[in-house]
Amino acid sequence: MNFEVKDKVVLVTGANRGIGKVILEEALKRGASKVYAAVRNTDSADSLVKEHGDRVVPVRVDLEDPASITSAANVATDVDLVINNAGVLKVKNSLDDDAIEALQFEMNVNVYGLIRMVQAFAPVLKANGGGAIAQLNSVASVKTFGDLTTYCASKSASYSVTQGLRETLRDQGTQVVSVHPGPIATDMGQNAGFEDIAASPELVATAIFDALAEGRFHAWPDPMAQQIGEAYQSFAENVVEADMQEGVA
Q1: By CB atoms within 10 Å of each CB, which of 41, 78, 107, 175 scores lowest?
Q2: Which family does the record claim for this protein (predicted)?
């Protein structure tokens, strides 16, 4: 299963800045007919509309607000590709006094937000022929870093959900891609203290659309991600991506 973005309609969450903005621009560069900029405040996408005209359509989506997601799905009924990029990060380890509160916040956005998105948009994709979903996970999905323990836990959970979606949505012809960046040069990366080792967001956008076109489930965009992906490859191919019967040990 593979997906070409040319002449397709795309929706990107968190499209007003950082990785999301670069994904939106890459989609347009590759010939997408329209991109819905799914953002919490639609005014934040005004500059994108000014630059790209009616090929960019702002739509309100707050991953913590299920009603906004349902409403967006009722508006964006022509979507072929959903890229769930928006996410949150807290610099917390398990011993911090507010670790549980941090994890609850990250789970609500990074995991429950993903589930809300696919519940709303999977029927839309099915009605439009199947399409595709790309989920921004992280190298933190497969490797826990002590000072980012709660974030890593949430991204491990979102990766688990993404794996399940790959199987669940296969019958309706929806391709699923799990994207695993390392440190990226964004506000989030800077807040986490990664500015000295952060890679370009363009690498993430390129990796997403290349993986879709080539029919790959995993995308490892940047040098750190590629190093981890190479070490993880055997497990990914022989366990995660293998067709295994439920209940088989």
Answers
A1: 41
A2: Belongs to the short-chain dehydrogenases/reductases (SDR) family.
